[in-house]
Write a structure and sequence with these properties.
alpha/beta, 7 helices, binds S-adenosylmethionine, single chain, 227 residues
Protein backbone atom coordinates (compact mmCIF):
# COMPACT_ATOMS: atom_id res chain seq x y z
CA UNK A 1 0.00 0.00 0.00
CA UNK A 2 1.39 3.46 -0.93
CA UNK A 3 1.93 5.80 1.96
CA UNK A 4 1.06 9.41 1.11
CA UNK A 5 0.86 12.57 3.21
CA UNK A 6 3.32 11.55 5.92
CA UNK A 7 3.27 15.13 7.22
CA UNK A 8 -0.36 14.67 8.34
CA UNK A 9 0.46 11.63 10.46
CA UNK A 10 1.26 13.40 13.78
CA UNK A 11 -2.12 15.17 13.71
CA UNK A 12 -3.92 11.93 12.85
CA UNK A 13 -2.15 10.12 15.69
CA UNK A 14 -3.18 12.79 18.15
CA UNK A 15 -6.78 12.75 16.95
CA UNK A 16 -7.00 8.95 17.24
CA UNK A 17 -4.91 8.51 20.40
CA UNK A 18 -7.72 7.05 22.61
CA UNK A 19 -8.33 4.16 20.18
CA UNK A 20 -4.83 3.56 18.80
CA UNK A 21 -1.90 1.70 20.38
CA UNK A 22 1.52 1.47 18.80
CA UNK A 23 2.56 -1.96 20.05
CA UNK A 24 5.97 -1.55 18.45
CA UNK A 25 6.55 0.97 21.28
CA UNK A 26 4.41 -0.48 24.07
CA UNK A 27 2.81 -3.91 24.04
CA UNK A 28 0.56 -3.27 27.05
CA UNK A 29 -2.97 -2.27 26.10
CA UNK A 30 -4.78 0.30 28.28
CA UNK A 31 -6.84 -1.25 31.10
CA UNK A 32 -10.40 -2.03 30.03
CA UNK A 33 -9.63 -1.25 26.39
CA UNK A 34 -11.12 -4.53 25.10
CA UNK A 35 -13.91 -5.06 27.61
CA UNK A 36 -17.59 -4.16 27.78
CA UNK A 37 -18.76 -5.70 24.47
CA UNK A 38 -20.67 -8.86 23.58
CA UNK A 39 -18.06 -10.09 21.10
CA UNK A 40 -14.56 -9.32 19.87
CA UNK A 41 -13.54 -9.54 16.20
CA UNK A 42 -10.11 -8.90 14.68
CA UNK A 43 -9.02 -7.72 11.23
CA UNK A 44 -5.38 -8.42 10.36
CA UNK A 45 -3.92 -5.95 7.84
CA UNK A 46 -6.70 -3.35 7.99
CA UNK A 47 -5.09 -0.81 5.64
CA UNK A 48 -6.91 2.53 5.84
CA UNK A 49 -9.79 1.02 7.81
CA UNK A 50 -12.76 1.18 5.45
CA UNK A 51 -13.90 -2.40 6.22
CA UNK A 52 -13.49 -2.26 9.99
CA UNK A 53 -15.37 1.05 10.19
CA UNK A 54 -18.30 -0.33 8.17
CA UNK A 55 -18.44 -3.41 10.38
CA UNK A 56 -18.20 -1.38 13.62
CA UNK A 57 -20.92 1.00 12.47
CA UNK A 58 -23.23 -1.93 11.73
CA UNK A 59 -22.64 -3.89 14.98
CA UNK A 60 -22.27 -1.49 17.94
CA UNK A 61 -22.26 -4.28 20.54
CA UNK A 62 -19.22 -5.95 18.97
CA UNK A 63 -15.72 -4.58 19.50
CA UNK A 64 -13.67 -4.58 16.28
CA UNK A 65 -9.91 -4.65 16.70
CA UNK A 66 -7.65 -3.95 13.73
CA UNK A 67 -3.98 -4.81 13.21
CA UNK A 68 -1.76 -3.02 10.74
CA UNK A 69 2.02 -3.07 10.57
CA UNK A 70 2.54 0.51 9.27
CA UNK A 71 1.93 3.40 11.66
CA UNK A 72 1.28 5.86 8.82
CA UNK A 73 -1.51 3.64 7.50
CA UNK A 74 -3.17 2.68 10.77
CA UNK A 75 -3.15 6.33 11.83
CA UNK A 76 -5.52 6.98 8.92
CA UNK A 77 -7.73 4.02 9.83
CA UNK A 78 -8.01 5.10 13.46
CA UNK A 79 -8.65 8.71 12.46
CA UNK A 80 -11.45 7.54 10.14
CA UNK A 81 -13.11 5.65 13.01
CA UNK A 82 -12.70 8.72 15.25
CA UNK A 83 -14.19 11.04 12.63
CA UNK A 84 -17.16 8.67 12.29
CA UNK A 85 -17.67 8.72 16.06
CA UNK A 86 -17.28 4.93 16.36
CA UNK A 87 -16.94 3.80 19.98
CA UNK A 88 -16.38 0.11 19.19
CA UNK A 89 -13.20 0.13 17.12
CA UNK A 90 -9.60 -0.25 18.33
CA UNK A 91 -6.42 -0.06 16.28
CA UNK A 92 -3.09 -1.68 17.06
CA UNK A 93 0.03 -1.00 15.06
CA UNK A 94 1.96 -4.25 15.07
CA UNK A 95 2.99 -7.16 12.92
CA UNK A 96 0.51 -10.02 13.09
CA UNK A 97 3.39 -12.31 14.08
CA UNK A 98 3.36 -10.59 17.50
CA UNK A 99 -0.39 -10.97 18.06
CA UNK A 100 -0.05 -13.47 20.89
CA UNK A 101 2.10 -11.03 22.85
CA UNK A 102 -0.39 -8.19 22.48
CA UNK A 103 -3.88 -9.69 22.59
CA UNK A 104 -5.77 -11.95 25.03
CA UNK A 105 -5.92 -15.59 23.90
CA UNK A 106 -9.16 -17.38 22.95
CA UNK A 107 -11.06 -14.09 22.99
CA UNK A 108 -11.92 -13.40 19.33
CA UNK A 109 -15.02 -14.75 17.63
CA UNK A 110 -13.98 -13.93 14.08
CA UNK A 111 -10.68 -13.04 12.41
CA UNK A 112 -10.81 -11.28 9.03
CA UNK A 113 -8.06 -11.37 6.41
CA UNK A 114 -8.97 -9.05 3.56
CA UNK A 115 -6.82 -8.80 0.44
CA UNK A 116 -3.67 -9.74 2.32
CA UNK A 117 -0.45 -9.24 0.37
CA UNK A 118 -0.04 -12.33 -1.86
CA UNK A 119 3.78 -12.40 -1.80
CA UNK A 120 3.91 -14.18 -5.19
CA UNK A 121 7.52 -15.37 -5.01
CA UNK A 122 7.75 -18.85 -3.58
CA UNK A 123 10.60 -17.98 -1.25
CA UNK A 124 8.34 -15.37 0.38
CA UNK A 125 5.50 -17.76 1.17
CA UNK A 126 6.36 -17.53 4.89
CA UNK A 127 5.23 -13.87 4.80
CA UNK A 128 1.73 -14.72 3.55
CA UNK A 129 -0.84 -14.13 6.28
CA UNK A 130 -2.35 -17.55 5.53
CA UNK A 131 0.98 -19.33 6.10
CA UNK A 132 0.82 -22.08 8.72
CA UNK A 133 2.91 -20.04 11.15
CA UNK A 134 0.14 -17.41 11.21
CA UNK A 135 -2.65 -20.00 11.31
CA UNK A 136 -1.16 -21.35 14.57
CA UNK A 137 -1.38 -17.86 16.05
CA UNK A 138 -4.96 -17.24 14.84
CA UNK A 139 -6.05 -20.53 16.36
CA UNK A 140 -4.81 -19.37 19.76
CA UNK A 141 -6.66 -16.06 19.45
CA UNK A 142 -10.03 -17.56 18.45
CA UNK A 143 -12.75 -18.61 20.89
CA UNK A 144 -13.79 -22.26 20.94
CA UNK A 145 -16.58 -21.49 18.46
CA UNK A 146 -14.60 -18.96 16.45
CA UNK A 147 -13.71 -18.89 12.78
CA UNK A 148 -11.73 -16.98 10.16
CA UNK A 149 -12.88 -15.28 6.96
CA UNK A 150 -10.48 -14.69 4.08
CA UNK A 151 -11.07 -12.65 0.91
CA UNK A 152 -8.73 -12.02 -2.01
CA UNK A 153 -8.67 -11.19 -5.72
CA UNK A 154 -5.63 -13.43 -6.28
CA UNK A 155 -6.57 -16.92 -7.57
CA UNK A 156 -3.12 -18.45 -7.01
CA UNK A 157 -2.87 -17.08 -3.48
CA UNK A 158 -6.40 -18.27 -2.75
CA UNK A 159 -5.69 -21.84 -3.87
CA UNK A 160 -2.39 -21.88 -1.98
CA UNK A 161 -4.22 -20.64 1.12
CA UNK A 162 -6.88 -23.36 0.89
CA UNK A 163 -4.02 -25.89 0.93
CA UNK A 164 -2.35 -24.11 3.84
CA UNK A 165 -5.55 -24.21 5.93
CA UNK A 166 -6.04 -27.87 5.12
CA UNK A 167 -2.41 -28.81 5.89
CA UNK A 168 -2.76 -27.06 9.25
CA UNK A 169 -5.87 -29.18 9.95
CA UNK A 170 -8.41 -26.36 9.55
CA UNK A 171 -11.79 -27.13 8.09
CA UNK A 172 -12.52 -24.96 5.05
CA UNK A 173 -16.29 -24.77 5.20
CA UNK A 174 -17.35 -22.32 2.53
CA UNK A 175 -15.59 -21.45 -0.71
CA UNK A 176 -16.92 -18.92 -3.19
CA UNK A 177 -14.62 -18.12 -6.13
CA UNK A 178 -16.80 -15.31 -7.49
CA UNK A 179 -18.50 -13.38 -4.73
CA UNK A 180 -21.49 -11.50 -6.08
CA UNK A 181 -21.39 -7.72 -6.10
CA UNK A 182 -24.92 -7.82 -4.70
CA UNK A 183 -25.41 -9.33 -1.26
CA UNK A 184 -28.46 -11.45 -0.45
CA UNK A 185 -30.97 -9.43 1.64
CA UNK A 186 -29.69 -9.03 5.21
CA UNK A 187 -26.08 -10.01 4.38
CA UNK A 188 -24.91 -6.63 3.08
CA UNK A 189 -22.79 -6.02 6.16
CA UNK A 190 -21.44 -9.56 6.51
CA UNK A 191 -17.66 -9.94 6.13
CA UNK A 192 -18.19 -11.60 2.76
CA UNK A 193 -20.14 -8.73 1.23
CA UNK A 194 -18.93 -5.59 3.08
CA UNK A 195 -16.43 -4.22 0.56
CA UNK A 196 -12.90 -3.18 1.47
CA UNK A 197 -10.86 -0.41 -0.13
CA UNK A 198 -8.81 -2.87 -2.19
CA UNK A 199 -11.89 -4.86 -3.08
CA UNK A 200 -13.55 -1.83 -4.68
CA UNK A 201 -10.51 -1.34 -6.88
CA UNK A 202 -10.42 -4.98 -8.01
CA UNK A 203 -14.16 -5.06 -8.63
CA UNK A 204 -13.85 -1.94 -10.78
CA UNK A 205 -11.36 -3.90 -12.92
CA UNK A 206 -13.77 -6.84 -13.21
CA UNK A 207 -11.56 -9.21 -11.19
CA UNK A 208 -13.50 -12.00 -9.41
CA UNK A 209 -13.36 -11.87 -5.62
CA UNK A 210 -12.77 -15.09 -3.70
CA UNK A 211 -13.92 -15.79 -0.16
CA UNK A 212 -13.70 -18.65 2.29
CA UNK A 213 -14.53 -19.37 5.89
CA UNK A 214 -12.29 -21.67 7.91
CA UNK A 215 -12.46 -23.23 11.35
CA UNK A 216 -9.43 -24.42 13.35
CA UNK A 217 -8.68 -28.12 13.72
CA UNK A 218 -10.26 -28.65 17.13
CA UNK A 219 -13.64 -27.63 15.73
CA UNK A 220 -13.57 -29.70 12.53
CA UNK A 221 -16.79 -31.59 12.15
CA UNK A 222 -18.96 -28.92 13.74
CA UNK A 223 -21.71 -27.24 11.78
CA UNK A 224 -20.65 -24.22 9.69
CA UNK A 225 -21.44 -20.97 11.48
CA UNK A 226 -24.54 -19.30 10.11
CA UNK A 227 -23.73 -15.75 11.20
C1 LIG B 1 -3.13 -5.15 0.31
S1 LIG B 1 -3.45 -4.25 1.74
C2 LIG B 1 -5.19 -4.56 2.05
C3 LIG B 1 -5.78 -3.57 2.98
C4 LIG B 1 -7.26 -3.81 3.36
N1 LIG B 1 -7.42 -5.04 4.10
C5 LIG B 1 -8.16 -3.80 2.17
O1 LIG B 1 -8.67 -4.88 1.80
O2 LIG B 1 -8.38 -2.71 1.58
C6 LIG B 1 -2.69 -5.31 2.98
C7 LIG B 1 -2.42 -4.59 4.29
O3 LIG B 1 -1.95 -5.53 5.24
C8 LIG B 1 -0.86 -4.97 5.96
N2 LIG B 1 -0.02 -6.09 6.43
C9 LIG B 1 0.69 -6.93 5.66
N3 LIG B 1 1.34 -7.83 6.40
C10 LIG B 1 1.02 -7.56 7.70
C11 LIG B 1 1.39 -8.15 8.95
N4 LIG B 1 2.22 -9.19 9.00
N5 LIG B 1 0.87 -7.63 10.08
C12 LIG B 1 0.03 -6.55 10.03
N6 LIG B 1 -0.35 -5.96 8.87
C13 LIG B 1 0.14 -6.46 7.72
C14 LIG B 1 -0.17 -4.08 4.95
O4 LIG B 1 0.62 -3.08 5.54
C15 LIG B 1 -1.35 -3.51 4.18
O5 LIG B 1 -1.83 -2.30 4.74
Amino acid sequence: MRIRGRDKVPALLEMAAPILVDAEQDMVLPAGWLTGYDRLCLEVGCGRGSFICQMADHAPNTLFVAFEKFLEIIARAAALATAQGLQNARFIRTDAAKAEMVLPLHAFHVIYLNFSDPWPRRRNDIKRLTHQRYLQIYKKLLTADGWLEFKTDNATFFEWSVGSFQKAGWSVQAIDTNVSNTAPPGEEMSAKYAQTEYERRFRALGIPIRHLRAVPATLSGTEPPTH
